[in-house]
Specification:
By secondary structure, the chain is mainly β. It contains 2 helices and 10 strands. The strands form 2 sheets. Strands 1, 3, 5, 6, 8, 9 and 10 form a 7-stranded mixed sheet that branches. The chain is globular. Residues 1-28 have low confidence and may be disordered.
Length: 137
Amino acid sequence: MSAALAASMSVSTGADTAAADVHPAPGASTSVGSDVVSLTSPLKGDIYRAGSQMTIAWTNPRVQTISQIVLVTESDNGPQPVTTVAEDVDAQSGSYEWTVPDDLTEGLYRLEVGTPPDAAYSGQFWVERPDLLRVNW
């Protein structure tokens, strides 16, 4: 593993790093394969409202073009795609603006930046739906 990749990983589960490469720990921001970019936003614990703007930001691009940015959920089988956010993004720009879909199900998500195995994953963030009725007991 390169020193740059080791430095960009923030998986602190105590688990074997090979396992982290296959299934990034929920909430961790990490790269698998080669370091496509080092993600700086969204961060673990961020909260976004459906319909709002999200800035996806990164540093240290190792490619000219990011093949894809995909919104994913976690499962026992690793990241599962929900929707493609963007394709063929200029990696040198350092960011991409995205509108979180109005109809996205409320819950925890991550972003997969690049195409596995050469991808970086954001920390888990929450998407809330203000249009949902909430009952407090």
